[in-house]
UniProtKB/TrEMBL annotation, chain B:
One Pfam match: BPD_transp_1_N
One Gene Ontology cellular component annotation held by this UniProt entry: plasma membrane
Descriptive protein name: ABC transporter permease
Compartment annotation: Cell membrane
Ranges annotated as spanning the membrane: 12-30, 100-121, 133-155, 188-207, 246-270, 290-314
Protein source organism: Devosia elaeis
Family designation: Belongs to the binding-protein-dependent transport system permease family.
UniProt entry keywords in alphabetical sequence: Cell membrane, Membrane, Transmembrane, Transmembrane helix, Transport
Keyword Disulfide bond in record: no
Length: 319, 326
């Protein structure tokens, strides 16, 4: 996976190019090449991610600079020129903000929260799962009971609750700056249990194997055993859950923002844009809601499909 | 069976106590209850008096004891935001959520089982492929987008159904129902469909998978060999044996339905408990949040208990005490 230079299957003499060739011949590349849906999904996901990352460079306008906004440009339909003579490919919202630019910046917020929340859940879940599976006993029982209880409640409910509690603890004047991080922690805490459960199971299997016993007999520090020896062997399922949980985190962020408890309105994510757009749906300005909605659907669907493919490719026994 | 239920009851009580403890921590330590209750120019003496009156100067475990006692009587204090007793607020909005949840569970169960049987009996048909693909797409779409889509098609474009609210309601005792008026029923359609879609796909896939499994077994082959009619085999023998997992999932999902109703209720401005909770989170209305937490946990625990008891009714193998563990 990462850097394992001395594993016996891979001779140390292997040079970079031949390793690349081995990679190209591997099962996973084969299954990628033979799944057109996955290829399309990965291209869509990559384009959306690039669009979000380079939004400041790519966006035709800066939607958050009040100096460039013109209220006269409000409600310009897609693919047309406004009163002030500017061209808007996807139209403008009620304040004259370019929808295309707003969506680019919005996907940036959505993806940032999604990635960070998944990372948070992954680190926490993998850590607790490793400890739970390796140590066993009371520690294992406590961690797994908490995970069980949490898994039986919908993630969105837990995230809402954590968000509300954090709102109550953080002083009001710092809330706007902290909102994104609160959201990340709330979604992350709502999703760690999946990782913990899977990693625990895999760790319990690995723990029985000879290489772990050997390391233990050599007196290697248990933390080193877990991180250097067990962790790389349980990473496959973690990657699968990570991808699926990224799609979930993006949807959860959008839902929370749609409910009006997510990111502050000064930093609209895709969910916030949909919330705003719904007001104009009844008066015929369909583009204000349609384009953010399509972007969200494409994002969630493509990441989801990638996750499904990864699960099947890494674990041929399933299905 | 009695021993099994008793053990389950004890477990449920423990879960409820843990949840009550979390709710108590939230209730007691998030925000300052005194700041919310007293006016801005209250003096220190007023604070001390109020602290003593509300029992906030008591030791931690005494406060928790009173919290549980009060919760058992349905008392969760007064909403900071609406200045009304929380129990009254929840009770007023409960009928709306329950009617929505049951309507959507009915839709999900009926159509889920029907589509599941259909797709299992015709595994290679084109229509099966369409239904299965549709269900995959449906699962990966966020609930609120499905709701908005339905509003756009059926309320904005076609103008067939109302887009928000509960329509006219009729008061029966303390229960305010929307099921007896035409506008109430019309208002129920879109939210109920939105809420049911996720469960519907879940039930459908489950029934399909179980049916495919059961149809391969020897006793189905034997039933065919005996010359029983297709209908008797499919419904009398096969479907009956798929029911245990279906009941489990449906039952457990009913709890998530109450929670997922949060989203649907916000999309359709349905005046239920879920929208009350969202508004309370946005306004950091701590007593309502704590009460909702206890309420949802209670729903989950009760449903789990009912599902466990239903097992005994559906599956005769469990009835003779053959299995007493969990």
């Amino acid at each position: 996976m990462t850097d394992l230079p001395h594993s016996p299957e891979q001779p140390v003499v292997a040079v970079e190019t031949s390793r690349w060739k081995t990679f190209l011949k591997s099962d996973i590349v084969w299954s990628y090449r033979h799944s057109p849906v996955t290829i399309v999904a990965s291209i869509v996901a990559l384009l959306l991610i690039l669009m979000a990352v380079f939004a400041p460079l790519l966006a035709p306008y800066n939607p958050f600079n009040p100096a460039t906004l013109n209220l006269m440009d409000g409600f310009t339909p897609p693919n047309s020129t406004s009163f002030s003579g500017k061209y808007f490919a996807l139209g403008t919202d009620s304040q004259g903000r370019d929808m295309l630019s707003t969506i680019m910046y919005g996907s940036r917020v959505s993806l940032f929260v999604g990635f960070m929340a998944t990372l948070f859940a992954m680190v926490m879940g993998v850590g607790l799962g490793l400890v739970s599976g390796y140590v066993g006993g009371v520690v294992d029982a406590i961690i797994m009971r908490v995970a069980d209880v949490q898994l039986s409640f919908p993630a969105i409910l837990i995230a809402l609750l954590i968000f509300g509690v954090a709102r109550g603890i953080i002083p009001p004047n710092q809330q706007e700056g902290a909102a994104v991080w609160v959201l990340i922690v709330a979604i992350g805490l709502a999703n760690w249990a999946q990782f913990a459960r899977t990693v625990r199971g895999a760790t319990m299997v690995e723990r029985q194997k000879d290489y772990v016993s050997a390391a233990r007999l050599l007196g290697v520090n248990p933390i080193i055993i877990l991180l250097r020896h067990v962790l790389p062997n349980v990473l496959g399922p973690v990657l699968v859950i990570g991808t699926i949980s990224l799609a979930l985190a993006i949807i959860e962020e959008a839902t929370l923002s749609y409910l009006g408890v997510g990111v502050p309105p000064t930093q609209p994510s895709l969910g916030t844009l949909i919330r705003i757009g719904q007001q104009f749906m009844f008066s015929g300005e369909w583009w204000i809601i349609l384009f953010p909605a399509i972007t969200l659907i494409l994002l969630a669907l493509s990441v989801n499909l990638l996750g499904d493919w990864l699960r099947d490719a890494l674990n041929p026994k399933l299905r | 069976m009695l021993a099994f239920i008793a053990r389950r009851l004890v477990q449920s009580v423990i879960v409820m106590l843990v949840v009550a403890f979390i709710a108590f921590l939230v209730f007691r330590y998030v925000g300052d209850p005194l700041a919310a209750l007293l006016s801005q120019d209250a003096k220190q003496a007023d604070y001390d008096a109020a602290r003593e009156r509300l029992g906030l100067d008591q030791p931690f475990y005494v406060q928790f004891y009173y919290f549980v006692i009060n919760a058992l009587q349905g008392q969760f204090g007064i909403s900071y935001r609406l200045q009304q007793p929380v129990s009254q607020l929840i009770l007023e909005r409960l009928p709306a959520t329950i009617e929505l949840a049951f309507a959507s569970a009915t839709i999900a169960l009926v159509f889920g089982v029907l589509l599941g049987i259909y797709t299992a009996l015709r595994p290679r048909a084109f229509s099966t492929g369409v239904i299965m693909t549709g269900s995959l797409v449906g699962v990966s779409l966020p609930t609120f987008l499905i709701g908005i889509g339905l509003i756009y098609v059926f309320a904005v474009e076609l103008k067939w159904l109302p887009s928000f609210g509960r329509g006219e309601v009729v008061q029966i005792g303390w229960w305010r129902t929307g099921l007896l008026t035409q506008s109430g029923l019309r208002s129920l359609v879109l939210p109920a469909i939105t809420l049911s879609l996720f469960q519907l796909t879940l039930i459908m896939r489950l029934v399909r998978a179980e049916m495919l499994e059961v149809l391969r077994t020897d006793y189905i082959r034997f039933a065919r060999a005996r010359g029983l009619s297709q209908r008797a085999i499919n419904f009398g023998h096969a479907l009956r044996n798929t029911m245990v997992p279906v009941i489990t999932i449906t039952g457990l999902q009913l709890g998530s339905v109450i929670a997922f109703a949060i989203i649907t209720e916000t999309v359709f401005q349905w005046p239920g408990v879920g929208s009350l909770f969202v508004n309370s989170v946005a306004a950091v209305d701590v007593p309502v949040m704590a009460a909702y937490l206890v309420f949802v946990a209670l729903v989950f625990v009760v449903i789990n208990l009912i599902v466990d008891i239903l097992y005994f009714i559906v599956d005769p193998r469990l009835r003779d005490g053959a299995r007493t563990g969990k």
